């Protein structure tokens, strides 16, 4: 089968890889319908993380090709969406809603879903079937549910977004934008998008942003304070993962407010004393997307949300290298690869 | 009047200070019945924080001596308990339960309650009167409510302690011990005290600890994991404020669990990537004691809790220097000063 392999920074190739086969009775193999490139795939692409000849991709939707003997909740032919972390969904941590930290967790990235097929461990716990075969226009939205939508949604939940609240969103990538969509769905009264790109601002507004702040860092914080009677936002979504973005998020939050952070932290050190006196709640990490999948799939199926809007470039799998280049150069927010 | 003044590290004196008088219509002056020495008073005593000729103390109970024209909820002669942070209790932040971050907050430490009298700003928002003049044996417990009990209680609430949960407590000072008491009152199923001092272990057990872990750092974490099926505690109370204690708390918490931290952070830097992948909730800071005062006073009044047990040395105000020395040398957990 064809699949994406990263050989090192900037070196992405599509080549022949071995088609996966079932090795455990709880496995499934799916034929990928669509996959995409994640903001986190840019960390190794830019050399921040080290890779060598690694299969790439952890977002996916597709059709079940084969199932192991113990798989019971999905069947061959089902159209399925799964999280970027495979989980048994039965352990104590999964049952508490933290499937991305399942005691038997398997990162899907190790299989590389930017390919024609993928193995999915813990198929029962990981995959959720759609009510029927989806219309093709729903596929991008379902694919978004696999990671970026689920992550933005978790960020909003972690930030305790709700009715009557003012929410600020740090980061205008796909996750930040879908954090805005989630905040809107969760009933936020006011949603402030921090963005300086006209196209992303437009999508932010479409998703429900009521205000745009172009300033960053201390100036951005001052602007959020100005818009919130000097107090800061009730809820802040952090969707970048740098020292600056984390501090911008913490400082934009009022005492007793909540920061939901989902940008994968790189070289971040939080100053204890400042955090202590900020009085904020901090919660985040790898999103337990599986917790939200049934609800998100239903919202998409009922055409109540359009998270597929974050894909602004669609390429065939064979052109994956061009997709990485476009995201790296910020010519695309999020690239969908058709398979 | 007589009052404690710290001249520098290790240099505590009791000397004549000017008796406070009302300057704003929302002020009160109280005659202190009892006050105490806080773990945080040791930071300047040990030279970690810088002070010069500073009045000391922020914990207090006493009788209202005089009130400003606008004070309406307390009257002269009332026996009152107040938080270590004076707050108006009407602003948006106070109403959300974060009175220690009131937009008009005044730290009581600047008045120095280790004295015969103290000014209390925002008297209506800060002070809570007891149902009647307390029996003298209740005074230590009411005094504890002013800071250490309220702080331990907040830590337990921040750590989302509740029925069915396993709680670990890092730190066996007065706050950690009262975090145990709070966890017990809030219905925790299992409470693991991390302590290596026999006397403190005994008090921990009296307050409700079901297990004692003597190990610290990585060994302590391993022990907590061992006691929790490899997962970590649901809720962890951090009541020290050092890098080691914070990391011990975070690492002892299961994914999706809650850390309530109330040790005043000194030289702490939290590694972002580890925090991200820990998946814990982090909340803490200066405890909004005022939020809990009515409930805590009632529990004490009804003799349901005995937080005054943390005082293991009682001295007259005049001997404050000896009290500091005893706490610094760990000969006393918490020193009560009678006035």
Automatic annotation (TrEMBL), chains A, B:
The organism's place on the tree of life at top rank: Bacteria
Xref: InterPro entries: ADH-like_C, ADH-like_N, ADH_Zn_CS, ER, GroES-like_sf, NAD(P)-bd_dom_sf
Transmembrane regions listed in the UniProt entry: none
Cofactor(s) the record lists: Zn(2+)
Ranges where the Enoyl reductase (ER) domain occurs: 8-337
PANTHER family to which the protein is assigned, alphabetical: DEHYDROGENASE, ZINC-CONTAINING, PUTATIVE (AFU_ORTHOLOGUE AFUA_2G02810)-RELATED, ZINC-TYPE ALCOHOL DEHYDROGENASE-LIKE
Family, per entry: Belongs to the zinc-containing alcohol dehydrogenase family.
The name this protein goes by in its record: Threonine dehydrogenase-like Zn-dependent dehydrogenase
Organism: Microbacterium murale
């Amino acid at each position: 089968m064809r699949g994406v392999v990263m050989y090192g920074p900037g070196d992405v190739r599509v080549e022949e890889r071995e088609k996966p086969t079932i090795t455990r009775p709880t496995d499934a193999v799916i034929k990928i319908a669509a996959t995409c490139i994640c903001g986190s795939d840019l960390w190794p692409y830019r050399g921040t993380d080290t890779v060598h000849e690694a299969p790439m991709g952890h977002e996916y939707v597709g059709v079940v090709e084969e199932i192991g003997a113990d798989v019971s909740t999905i069947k061959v032919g089902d159209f399925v969406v799964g999280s970027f972390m495979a989980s048994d969904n039965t352990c104590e941590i999964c049952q508490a809603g933290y499937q991305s930290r399942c005691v038997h967790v398997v990162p899907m990235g190790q299989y590389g879903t930017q390919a024609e097929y993928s193995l999915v461990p813990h198929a029962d716990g990981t995959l959720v079937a759609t009510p029927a075969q989806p219309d093709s226009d729903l596929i991008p939205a379902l694919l978004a549910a696999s990671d970026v939508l689920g992550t933005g949604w978790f960020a909003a939940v972690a930030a305790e977004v709700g009715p009557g609240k003012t929410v600020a969103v740090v980061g205008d990538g796909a996750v930040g934008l879908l954090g805005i969509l989630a905040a809107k769905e969760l009933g936020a009264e006011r949603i402030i998008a921090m963005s300086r790109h006209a196209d992303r601002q437009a999508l932010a507004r479409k998703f429900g942003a009521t205000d745009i702040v172009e300033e960053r860092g201390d100036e951005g914080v001052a602007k959020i304070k100005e818009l919130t009677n000097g107090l800061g936002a009730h809820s802040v979504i952090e969707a970048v993962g740098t020292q600056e973005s984390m501090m911008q998020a913490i400082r934009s939050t009022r005492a007793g407010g909540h920061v939901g952070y989902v940008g994968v932290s790189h070289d971040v050190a939080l100053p204890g004393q400042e955090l202590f006196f900020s009085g904020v709640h901090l919660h985040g990490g790898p999103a337990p997307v599986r917790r939200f999948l049934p609800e998100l799939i239903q919202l998409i199926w009922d055409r109540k949300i359009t998270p597929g809007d974050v894909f602004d470039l669609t390429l065939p799998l064979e052109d994956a290298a061009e997709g990485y280049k476009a995201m790296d150069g910020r010519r695309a927010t999020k690239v969908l690869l058709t398979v």
